[in-house]
From TrEMBL:
Gene Ontology terms, MF aspect: metal ion binding; P-type calcium transporter activity
Protein name (Swiss-Prot/TrEMBL): Calcium-translocating P-type ATPase
Compartments where located: Endomembrane system
Membrane topology: Multi-pass membrane protein
A Pfam family that the UniProt record links to this protein: Cation_ATPase_C
All residue ranges annotated as the Cation-transporting P-type ATPase C-terminal domain in the record: 69-244
SUPFAM superfamilies with a match to the protein in the record: Calcium ATPase, transmembrane domain M
Any one annotated GO CC term: plasma membrane
Organism from which the protein derives: Colletotrichum asianum
Residue ranges, annotated region (Disordered): 293-322
Listed GO biological process terms: intracellular calcium ion homeostasis
Superkingdom of source: Eukaryota
TM annotation in the entry: 42-64, 76-95, 191-211, 223-244
Amino acid sequence: MGISGTEVAKEASAIVLMDDNFASIAKAISWGRAVNDAAKKFLQFQFTINVTAGLLTVISALVGGTDASVFSVVQLLWINLIMDTFAALALGTDFPTPDLLKRKPEPRGVAVPNVTMWKMILGQSIYQLAVIFTFHYAGESIFQYHTEQQQRQLQTMTFNIYVWMQFFNQIDSRRIDNRFNILEGILQNPWFMFVQTVTLAGQVIIIFLGGEAFQVAPLTGAQWGWSLMFGVITIPVGMVVRLIPDWLLSAASEMFALPWKSFTTRRTEPATATRSLGPVMRLFNRCLGPRKQTEGEDAIQTTQQSAGATDEGHGKSGDPAEQQLDLDGIVEALRYGTAEVNVGIQLHPDTRKDDLVLVDLRQMGIPPSQNPALWQFMGSQL
């Protein structure tokens, strides 16, 4: 307690209630989860617009040159303003909802972008890229635009469609789970309403009055209808993406990751086997070739193999009494410093097999406190 508690209790405690009210614990947890969700909402929206804007700009510039880019420099500045400043204000200021306390706590080491978020990022990115590339490269043949004014209107309509997609995707990003109520608590966040109003008014002003500054042309009513229609479709696309099970995306990612894991494993296994020889032995092998083993080394290798086989056999056995290491074989191998069995101990070459550190005291039949040999050993160590 921050008011009635003592200083010693405050220093020893993990949480201090400054107002001595236990309800503050629930309030702190709800605000902590709200801040965590706000960061995830912003990342989901940010990744989507970064992927689409980056691919659109790079691909169009590589295909047709810098003059044939989908967006002009000033248009990209407006998109960047929506992407960073406005999105941070809109998505980072949501208040806690009652449903936040009904969720299970997340593990400490879990990744911030979860499977549900990546699913939405991929779905919205694919939809936006498909629409913008279609208008940019096939719009002239679809709408039969041949004059210079019509082509400029087509470029303006493409830019307008993309901005309205982000406008409605920002609403869709308010939900980072698979539920459909994306408007939950929207009226409680005045910053979100303010940002959406500024974005809407700014885009309308740019299209009607931007002119040469933004390299746009005034659009007709039909062109405004196309722009708003493809922007609104972002919401149903988000609903469809939420219907896709998360395990399906996880299974697909694991399936595509298996070839890469097998490829990297094949590349690292020979290197690991070579590194196990040590730097001196690797130098001898390169200069003189693999050396022959002596009889003593053959015996050591046989001991190691028997210890490893015993360990492997015990690992497969289901009897707890048989799941024990061959301690005698491991001690013999560890004395020479060439053991391949990872038992997590190191032994001096002069260590005996009957050393009290290695002996199982349970087999002696008497308690350790009444064992004279153990008392003598402990007295010699003091």
